[in-house]
Amino acid sequence: MNQQSYTSVLSALMIILAVLSSHSSAAGGSAVRPQRIVSIGLCTDQLLLMMAQRSQIASLTTSATNLQMSYMADAVGDIPLNNASVEEIIPYRPDLIVGSHFAARDTTRFLRQLGYEVNLVTLPTTIEEIYTLLTRFGEWTGNQARAASMIAKMKREIVEIQARYAHRPEKTMIIYSPNGYTIGANTLENDVLKYAGFRNLSAEMGIVGFKKISLEKVIEARPDFLQLDNHVFNRDSLASSYLGHPVLDKLVDNKELLFIPSRLRACAGPMVTEAIDYMAKKR
Amino acid sequence: MSLLSGTNLSYRIGDLSILEGIDIEVKPGELVGLIGPNGAGKSTLLRLLTCVEQAHSGEILYEGRDVNELSAEERARRIGYLVQGAKAYWPITVEKIIGLGRIPYQKWWRDASAEDDEKVLQAMKITETLAYRNRIVTTLSGGEQTLVMLARIFATDPQLIFADEPVAALDPYHQLHVMEILRDHARDSRGAVVVLHDLSLAARFCDRLYLINHGELHCAGTPTEIMTAENIAEVYGVKTRITGDAEGVSVIPVSRLGDHHP
Amino acid sequence: MKFKAIPTVPLLAGLGICLAVVFYCALLVGPVDISIVEASMNWIQKESSIGSLILFDIRLPRALLALFIGATLGLAGAALQGLFRNPLAEPGIIGVSNGAALGAVLVFYFGYANIAWFALPFGGLAGALVSVVIIFMLIGNSRSNVTLILAGVAINAIGGALIALSLNFAPNPYAIQEIVFWLLGSVSNRSINELMIALPFMLVGWGIILYCGRFLNALTLGEETASSMGFDVKRLRWTLVIGVAASVGAAVSVAGNIGFIGLVVPHLIRPFVGHEPRRLLLASTLGGAILLVTADIAVQLLSSGGELKLGVFTSLVGGPFFLFLILKTRNTLL
Lengths: 283, 262, 334
Hints:
The structure holds three protein chains of three kinds.
Chain A: H1 2-13, H2 24-29, E1 37-39, H3 42-51, E2 57-61, E3 81-82, H4 86-89, E4 96-100, H5 105-113, E5 118-121, H6 127-141, H7 144-164, E6 171-176, E7 181-183, H8 188-195, E8 198-200, H9 201-204, E9 210-212, H10 215-221, E10 225-228, H11 238-241, H12 246-251, E11 256-258, H13 262-265, H14 271-282
Parallel strand pairs in A: 1-2, 1-4, 2-3, 4-5, 6-8, 6-10, 10-11
Antiparallel strand pairs in A: 7-9
Helix pairs in contact in A: 6-7, 7-14
Chain B: E1 4-13, E2 16-26, E3 31-35, H1 42-49, E4 57-62, E5 65-66, H2 72-78, E6 79-82, H3 94-99, H4 114-127, H5 142-156, E7 160-164, H6 172-185, E8 191-195, H7 199-205, E9 208-213, E10 216-221, H8 223-226, H9 229-236, E11 238-245, E12 248-256
Parallel strand pairs in B: 3-8, 3-9, 6-7, 7-8
Antiparallel strand pairs in B: 1-2, 1-4, 4-5, 9-10, 11-12
Helix pairs in contact in B: 4-5
Chain C: H1 8-28, H2 36-44, H3 50-84, H4 96-109, H5 119-139, H6 145-169, H7 175-184, H8 192-211, H9 213-219, H10 223-228, H11 233-255, H12 261-269, H13 277-302, H14 310-333
């Protein structure tokens, strides 16, 4: 159960994509451009909206219209929505189903047994992996040129941002998430912090990935910035009560709490540059 | 003035009448016996008289005062109630159990006073339980436990003692011991009401008897008035041999009467 | 009897000293090394240092919460055992804690906790009260272990299921983890805020229970005898139950269901108070505090990440103890 909830927390917090793997070769080799793509994950929702022709999109998940979580919520329009259940997906007669690697395993296994092509993406843990992801997603959906231009734009933007804030000193930061989790090394967030000119103190403590951190350790580290992860900030849960601990108010007395809008972080894609910009500006 | 008087007492459970129109009186210095077959309502009557249960009708006076006008504390100081098969639920020392009898005199935050200790000591002397004052009550024999429970009542120093079948499971020695203690208590301004199944004991120790049957008073009077073969046959459905000697009346059940349906 | 009863004052003083020692130890334990003296100096001089923040904002509230909740559970266990005249009665075992957790869950996850400061502990109280009423209805006047435990099993199962159901319906992505919190309890990462909302209810509950001490003594001789001794049995029984519900309800509403404290503590202390129900109350209050503060230290030493829930630990220790008690009392109480 722990592993599973860990995974689900992961998914809820930083839905970030990467290329898969087992079916990629088949998908990549397909010459025909898919025309009825169904997405069963929030990230692939956004990637489709950014990259594919609208006529290619058959259905997105209901999360796609969530203004808090989806960067592309405004672009959904009248595209039909689904809850990622097999029953809902089949009537679209999809020629490609895309989703996140941590999507319900039963659903994807079932869909594959039924003969559908299901391509899943995994979490990129660096900016570099996002480029790979975009390239691969372009190949799957037959939008290679669009993918290339998106990558070029990202690279250009990152150079600009770093130049713009180069004069500001480096600052320290800890990301503190519901249930007392923090984000350490080998994560996209860590990369984003680095590009934005922050030292991630969790990573420096030796924390790798998404791990629990003792509140005492947070206090001891005394970061300049504390990023309270408000992805699902909801006072009516014990998980969020971690973020409401009064000692945090004292700790960040002269510091700043930083809330990055979830829609900028919930998925790995071109919006990552916006997140870097947002953070660098606060530095 | 009588120590206790109950007039026209009735008690029902739902539609079922348990007691109906009972009149009872205890005069100073009297040991009153309640007798009657199982289920006649003797124990219920004791519960009404001790205010453990509220009668549905009727009036109970302690020394002429309506029990409802007395505070719970005053009532508790006046009476001691030995329930049927009285026992302790925790393995506490005899002395502690007897000390519980002082509760009606203690404020909730206070421990025992010197007077309390004195009364407890006296109670142990009366009941001859001094020898095992430091023993754990649940390790004692049935007879010893009954004496301890009686001692708890004496620690309260009540005017009236109500005892529900105090000798039911005791050997003859302890039966006599318990009855003697009750008999000694019921002197001067004090009195006692005791429920008994042993008719001979009832006849020997009690000053007056109330014979109860089917929730109603069959008859009341001195042992010689009540202990007649007719009365016993009518109420209990048994044939008895009743003999009298210097020690009092003895009632010996001989055989069941065939047509009796209690 | 292996142990001799100890007079009240030395006993309470001894327990008080033990409590002071373990409480101090609790302040020493944590992932960061701090100097208590230095941190206290900083605090007195109103300087905010890392040490003083950790000591006064993290460790002290946590230790105090463990202390008050342990005390509440010890006291409530002693009170329920006196009331039911059964050494197996305990808030967790008879389902009162799960009832309280359910009440708190309903208030907490559906947004009512912010209506008023007392909404959360009141939810716990209401849940606890409902479960005790059901217990009374189920067991009647029976003192049988079997009836009591079966009633507890039923109420626990229903309470646990309803907690899970409510959390599944609650707008909360962490439901599974939080079910674990409510069923197994924890005082980690709780702040002074949680202590302050629960404390008034706990203290009122303690007062009510301690007030009923004489009644519990009288109950040693059974309900009829207690009644003849001037106690209004029905009213006092309710009074006591409300006291238990208020204190346990408040405790559970901020720390979840921490089991077995109320079972283990009164049993260990009973010989030292000569099995007297009233004297057991205060001693069990202190004993419960000692045990839970100690258990919380153990939990922190065993898992620095804080994954081990306090309730897991108390159940691991208390569960076998419970079985032992069943075996021991099987012949006398069945």
